[in-house]
């Protein structure tokens, strides 16, 4: 009787594992199929893109879409614009967020909870809420149609998220470490730079990755603040390929693939930092 029960339990566990594996495979296919189809279309000519039934592999592989995208449309300049804006805004936003998150984590003062709620509320509101005031300020400062306008807008939009994410990492660091450093003669700023920051590097890396991806994929601010095609970002440039009379599916698919590659490389390069940041404080001795 006991043996039969054990066999049934072990068989049930195996079935659960099988269903879990099947479910994971379905989710992976569901998530990656749009990327595969975009890559598939990027190597097809326009006739094969509209063939019926659709072909899951290009019969005649062509690089014409990439040549048109990088040659006539100069998409590599667009990618460089996106990288500059996303990278600069990420560095500034994460640097400011480190100081703000450390202060909110360590110091007690009146109105701290109200300030935390206000920071959170600015992130809860949709980006369109800030378009009119930011556009007015950028226009008065003469920053429209410049990368600086996008950098400042992305800092405003990403800073609350970065602060809230970093607060949890600073809370994991015991205050005794700073106190021991100050006993040895370090100033509060020196203990912050030399003791705390090295311990929160994984959290800073994880925050930088999410901030960079958000800035890279942002569309609304880039569409409104930049009217010059040479300074537009990748999402806006790809959307311009949908015209009133024609949709350039081939170059748009090729541009989508080229837009994904920098993010994949960046995340793979920061993979260890991302994993450490996401699991930081999860296991305690």
Automatic annotation (TrEMBL):
It holds the Pfam family BPD_transp_1. GO terms for biological process: transmembrane transport. It is a multi-pass membrane protein. Keywords: Cell membrane, Membrane, Transmembrane, Transmembrane helix, Transport. GO terms for cellular component: plasma membrane. This is ABC transmembrane type-1 domain-containing protein. Gene3D superfamilies: MetI-like. Belongs to the binding-protein-dependent transport system permease family. Residues 79-270 form the ABC transmembrane type-1 domain. The chain crosses the membrane at residues 21-39, 78-102, 114-136, 148-170, 199-226, 246-270. InterPro entries: BP-dep_ABC_trans_perm, MetI-like, MetI-like_sf. Its main location: membrane. It is found in: Cell membrane.
């Amino acid at each position: 009787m006991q043996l039969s029960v054990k066999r049934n339990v072990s068989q049930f566990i195996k079935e659960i594992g099988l269903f879990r594996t099947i479910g994971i495979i379905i989710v992976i296919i569901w998530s990656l199929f749009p990327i595969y189809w975009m890559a598939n279309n990027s190597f097809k000519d326009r006739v094969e893109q509209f063939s019926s039934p659709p072909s899951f592999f290009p019969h005649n592989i062509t690089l014409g879409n990439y040549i048109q995208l990088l040659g006539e449309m100069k998409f590599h300049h667009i990618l460089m614009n996106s990288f500059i804006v996303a990278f600069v805004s990420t560095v500034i936003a994460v640097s400011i967020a480190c100081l703000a998150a450390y202060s909110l984590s360590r110091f007690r003062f009146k109105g701290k909870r109200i300030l935390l709620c206000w920071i959170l509320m600015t992130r809860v509101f949709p980006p369109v809420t800030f378009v009119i005031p930011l556009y007015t300020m950028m226009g008065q400062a003469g920053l429209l149609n410049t990368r600086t306008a996008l950098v400042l807008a992305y800092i405003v939009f990403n800073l609350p998220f970065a602060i809230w994410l970093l607060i949890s990492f600073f809370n994991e660091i015991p205050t005794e470490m700073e106190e021991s450093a100050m006993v040895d003669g370090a100033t509060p700023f020196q203990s912050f730079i030399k003791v705390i920051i090295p311990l929160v590097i994984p959290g800073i890396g994880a925050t930088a990755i999410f901030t960079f991806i958000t800035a890279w994929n942002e569309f609304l601010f880039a569409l409104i603040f930049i009217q010059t095609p040479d300074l537009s970002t990748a999402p806006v440039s790809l959307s311009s390929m949908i015209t009133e009379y024609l949709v350039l599916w081939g170059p748009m698919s090729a541009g989508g693939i080229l837009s994904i590659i920098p993010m994949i490389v960046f995340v793979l390069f920061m993979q260890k930092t991302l994993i450490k940041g996401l699991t930081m404080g999860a296991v305690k001795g």
